[in-house]
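User: Before I run my own analysis I want an independent prediction to cross-check against. Here's the chain; please return only the structure tokens and, at the end, one sentence I can use as a sanity check.
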Amino acid sequence: MGSLERGVLTGFICRLCSDMHRVVLHIYGDEGIRMCISEKINRHLSINVSVPSDPLPKTICKTCLEKLESQHRLVMRIEQAAIMVKRQCHNRVGLRRDCYVSRYDNDSNVPPKPPAPK
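Assistant: Structure tokens:
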């Protein structure tokens, strides 16, 4: 995670939790851009912050920033693991088409059915 001291603003509303915080990071400030905050929000959350001119807050609090960074690390780890498993599967079975890796909703605890053989 980046340094809050380098991109800090005081007394603003967090874009994510909507609470007023004394210390926040500006999403489009130098540190926010360096940390790719808007890209991470757009990728991992169901909101869009890609328009700097919209009327919504442009800041994120420390708590939400830490949660966003944690989510980002988790997704990166999952994607890397999926690539590695798929590579190992292909190495073991050649280029079989019945080997696949997919993501699914953990709430359902039911993986998707494999694709039908061709």
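Sanity check: The mean pLDDT is 80.
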